[in-house]
Specification:
The complex is a heterodimer. By secondary structure, chain A is mostly beta strands. Helix content of chain A is 0%, strand content 50%. Chain A has no helices and eleven strands. In chain A, strands 2, 4, 5, 6, 9, 10 and 11 form a seven-stranded mixed beta sheet that branches. A four-stranded antiparallel beta sheet of chain A has the order 1-3-8-7, with no helix packed on it. In chain A, strand 9 and strand 10 form a beta hairpin. Chain A is globular, with a radius of gyration of 13 Å. By secondary structure, chain B is an all-beta fold. The relative contact order of chain B is 0.34. Classes of the chains: A mainly beta, B mainly beta. Chains A and B meet through strand 5 and strand 10 of A and strand 7 and strand 8 of B.
């Protein structure tokens, strides 16, 4: 059974850097074709795809946020970390991590973590 | 990349069928058979209901079906049930190697 769980701060101040960790089980990020991604959803708004890291270290980023995002993995710890710099109140959202195989941005999702950006 | 275009809302009565459209471009929906659909109930994480345009994950009701024509994908739900009421999002792979979502559609079961 695949499970994913997001962790990190619930409140960050404007201009700070957000660091989120996705801890997963039930699969290996060293298996061919597997990826872990991040997707966010501002309150009452639509989903927004952010980033993805594949088993082979290939990384993909949202073009509009690429300059602010970094995604890394620690296969031995079954973790993927997303950092987002220069946080702004518009970045307030629930952040989800996903397991990805094949042609979807995520077939299994974590429960999500709400991050609020406020001074 | 721009978000895919979905209707803001659709509605139907129990037992009826509804269709939600998802319009993109030749650089995303029209260029790849990598369209997915997600169902999201309030306060819950999205759940995959259709992938690769028309495939259903194990455990998803066969009342959910997907299709694509040109740059527009569609999700059809037949035999509407009260439990189907939720927000639905489409997504597509893009020519940039990224993913893009639609703006979401609120399904109301009357």
């Amino acid at each position: 059974q695949i499970t994913l769980k997001e962790s990190g701060p619930t409140l960050v101040k404007p201009t700070q850097t957000l660091t989120l960790t996705c801890t997963f089980s039930g699969f290996s990020l060293s298996s061919s074709g597997v990826g872990v991604g991040w997707i966010r959803q501002p309150p009452g708004k639509a989903l927004e795809w952010l980033a993805l890291i594949y088993w082979n270290e290939d990384k993909r980023y949202s073009p509009s946020l690429k300059s602010r995002l970094t995604i890394t993995k620690d296969t031995s710890k079954n973790q993927v970390v997303l950092t987002m710099t220069n946080m702004d109140p518009v970045d307030t959202a629930t952040y989800y991590c996903t397991h990805k195989v094949g042609g979807t941005p995520g077939d299994c999702w974590g429960q999500g973590t709400l991050v609020t950006v406020s001074s | 990349q721009s978000a895919l275009t979905q209707p803001a809302s659709v509605s139907g009565s129990p037992g009826q069928s509804i269709t939600i459209s998802c319009t993109g471009t030749s650089s995303d929906v029209g260029g790849y058979n990598y369209v997915s659909w997600y169902q999201q109930h309030p306060g819950k994480a999205p759940k995959l209901v259709i992938y690769d345009v028309s495939k259903r994950p194990s455990g998803v009701s066969n009342r959910f079906s997907g299709s694509k024509s040109g740059n527009t994908a569609s999700l059809t739900i037949s035999g509407l049930q009260a439990e189907d009421e939720a927000d639905f999002y489409c997504s597509s792979y893009t020519s940039s190697g990224n993913w893009v979502f639609g703006g979401g559609t609120k399904l109301t079961v009357l």
